[in-house]
Prior knowledge:
GNAT family N-acetyltransferase; seven-stranded mixed beta sheet; Acyl_CoA_acyltransferase; 7 strands
Amino acid sequence: MEQQQFKIIIADQSHQDFARIICDEMESSAKARGTGIAKRSPEYIQEKMREGKAVIAFTEDGIWAGFCYIETWSHGEYVANSGLIVSPPFRKSGLAKMIKKKIFGLSRTMYPEAKIFGLTTGLAVMKINSELGYEPVTYSELTQDENFWAGCKSCVNYEILMSKERKNCMCTAMLYDPKDHYEPEETTQDFKKHSKLYERFMRIKQWKLLAPFLKHHVEDNGVPVSKEGNGGGQRKSLFHRFHMFFNF
């Protein structure tokens, strides 16, 4: 699909009728992936629309295609671009990337001094984030606002999160700090160079986190973890940090 087939705008009260379908699609998508997501009510989504803290996408024919919204934590010190969802017929069209860019730009406009962060279990979202200048970080670098972490209670992986004292979970944390950040060209290059290793470490991380919760023993096929990891390249700092996050 061509980019011009979609119209991505800042949502407002005129879009409130789409809140239910957005929430249903968020929940359905999370179940299909087998991963957790903090549930949001239609009323919550409608509030974000009224506040101008959300973007919504349509086809040229006016069909709903995607959505994302802004949340703030720690008195505006941290911002999260949450609830990214693309309607199934329009996935793999590049729309998710377009929505992320739009909500990122809105976040920078509304909260220019805020640190923008995200939690994701998907390599595709990591790629998009890296193109915006996000870098992988530890959970300790995210907001410690209790209200944020309370939102994880509806996630299927909440027990894992708490067992790790909120220091690790199935998601990978990424952060854009306007006062101290790599340029998008650098983070994009790093992701391209190490994407296969990122994927491998994410799989190993998820297996290790899930293992204690399995009710039966699963034979480990023994995929070795490379201790060389970064390959000795000049851009080893970002990947080295990512590698060090797996402190189980």
